[in-house]
Design a protein that fits this description.
The complex is a heterodimer. Chain A is built from eight helices and no strands. By secondary structure, chain A is mainly α. In chain A, helix 3 packs parallel to helix 6. By secondary structure, chain B is mostly helical. In chain B, helix 3 packs parallel to helix 13. Classes of the chains: A mainly alpha, B mainly alpha. Chains A and B meet through helix 1, helix 2 and helix 3 of A and helix 4, helix 5 and helix 6 of B.
Chain lengths: 214, 296
């Protein structure tokens, strides 16, 4: 049952990310902020990561066990996906309204494609088991996401626009969710709560951007 | 002339000896085929229920827990497929197929990673659904009869739950355990400890209660192979000999065969339920009409 719930959460989050990136592109098309293009690309990169995760989990329903390398690399792939998203969003905020923000787009696209190649055994066979080594990637992601949250908060202190405080809360929720993800055992009560927190974080981002560009 | 003779000899060898040898080989295999074990093995092979380590020549080897889990999972999956196949309503059939797909979904990458190390990884994926508590660290140990029955009961209870049958086999075992405890208390109250051997049912006291529960339930639901029942009753009505010994692969196949039979009976009942209900409704309606007509 928890697999179905997890898959449902991942599908919902993937859809929210897709929606976010679409509205961000619309936002850019209006010529309001060039950095929204970077935000959109980062969201799209994480969307791609989630689609891969969903498809790998989905094939188990048809009684197909993915290869050992695929399963081992999947945790790395997801962790790097979140890190890439966090860095992309951070870059778009840090260089908000500046042309420099756009330079990150080819980097995000290139790294996304490169991460995809990691599923080929020969390229990433040197990677250790996710366990403790993967924790460093997650810690880096927490730091970047927390920085994004603080950035939005400082922007809000400067100009008390509700959009900024909501975004700050959303990224704080994502940080908390990722921290809890490494601590909580699967299918415990708080494991479900953690998924709800993550979904709430992405929902707030989606609704804020959707209302902002509507 | 020599050439002709050698040609004749060669042709004789080709056209006579080789076919004769082939026929002889065939007849040898044919006689073996008649043995019950081979028929059972072939039947399991035909239904694609055999775990990868099963070989016709090694059926007397002790079975490992992994093979036992794989065998039960495969039989359970076959049972569900049979259930889908026997469902007449196409909507229900579609619903069952969707349920089967979602039932096997597994997002536990740690479990999948461990399972992928084994050649029969698909069966271990099935096992997560049917048996649920599969610890991959313990699957290299040998299995006793009642332990296999326990796994079998878990899978069958899951299937009964899916059919929304309120009383599952596991619940029945729990009930039997309390009954056994009651019998033990009664024996204790009525007889002194020295008289136990003379009392009917004293085995209930001395034997493992869990083993007894599986034995009695297995007898009730015809889940024990006849070979097991006969051998135990010819000596003494005790499950000690059969359910406490380590199983061979052949024993496991015999138990799985009973499981197939149980599923066959049970799926037949469930799928026919709607049809029988509608038939019953028609009979009741026609009778009530008849009664109303008579009264009027």
């Amino acid at each position: 049952m928890n697999s179905i719930i997890k898959l449902a959460f991942e599908i919902l989050i993937a859809l929210l990310l897709l929606g976010t990136s679409i509205f961000m592109f619309i936002h850019y098309r209006r010529g309001e902020d060039v950095s929204s293009l970077t935000f959109a690309t980062a969201s799209l990169a994480l969307f791609a990561v989630l689609v891969v995760e969903i498809s790998i989990v989905s094939i188990t329903g048809a009684l197909f066990v993915p290869s050992q390398h695929t399963l081992r690399y999947l945790s790395w792939y997801i962790a790097f996906g979140y890190l890439l998203y966090a860095v992309g969003v951070f870059w778009s905020i840090f260089f908000s309204n500046k042309r420099l923000s756009v330079y990150m787009i080819p980097v995000i696209v290139f790294i996304s494609v490169l991460l995809g190649f990691g599923f080929i055994n020969e390229f990433t066979s040197w990677l250790p088991k996710f366990g403790e080594s993967g924790l460093y990637v997650l810690i880096l992601t927490w730091v970047v996401l927390l920085t994004v949250s603080i950035s939005y908060f400082l922007h809000w202190v400067n100009n008390k626009h509700p959009f900024r405080i909501y975004m700050s809360i959303a990224f704080l929720l994502l940080t908390v969710s990722l921290i809890l993800h490494t601590v909580l055992p699967v299918s415990s009560f708080f494991w479900y709560v953690n998924h709800i927190i993550r979904l709430a974080g992405f929902s707030i981002i989606f609704f804020q951007i959707q209302t902002g560009s509507a | 002339m020599r050439l002709l003779t050698s040609l004749l000899c060669t042709s004789l060898i080709i056209f006579f000896f080789i076919p004769v040898q082939a026929v002889q080989n065939y007849s040898i295999r044919d006689t073996n085929k008649s043995s019950e074990v081979e028929i059972l093995f072939e039947e399991f092979d035909r239904l694609n229920l055999l775990p990868q380590s099963f070989d016709i020549d090694k059926l007397n080897d002790e079975i490992l827990l992994i093979d036992c889990i794989c065998l039960i999972s495969r039989v359970s999956d076959w049972g569900e497929k049979l259930w889908i196949q026997r469902t007449s309503s196409s909507i229900n059939r579609f619903f069952f197929k969707v349920r089967r797909y979602f039932g096997y979904l597994n997002s536990d990458t740690d479990y999948l990673l461990d399972a992928s190390e084994y050649p029969d990884a698909n069966s271990l994926l099935m096992a997560k659904r049917w048996i649920n508590e599969v610890r991959l660290t313990e699957i290299d140990m040998t299995v006793k009869g009642w332990q296999m029955m326990e796994l079998e009961y878990k899978a069958l209870s899951h299937m009964l739950c899916m059919a929304r049958i309120p009383r599952t086999l596991n619940q029945e075992i729990a009930l039997l355990l309390t009954e056994i405890d009651e019998v033990r208390t009664n024996i204790l109250l009525l007889y002194s400890r020295n008289d136990f051997d003379k009392v009917a049912g004293s085995d209930l006291y001395s034997g493992d209660r869990l083993m007894w529960a599986y034995y009695l339930s297995g007898l009730q639901h015809e889940l024990l192979p006849s070979k097991f029942i006969e051998s135990s009753f010819s000596q003494r009505p005790s499950p000690k000999n059969i359910l406490n010994k380590r199983l061979t692969k052949l024993d496991a196949l015999l138990i799985a065969d009973r499981m197939i039979d149980y599923i066959d009976r049970f799926t037949g009942d469930v799928t026919g339920y709607d049809k029988k209900l509608s038939e019953l409704k028609t009979i009741v309606t026609s009778r009530s009409r008849l009664i109303t007509g008579v009264i009027n």
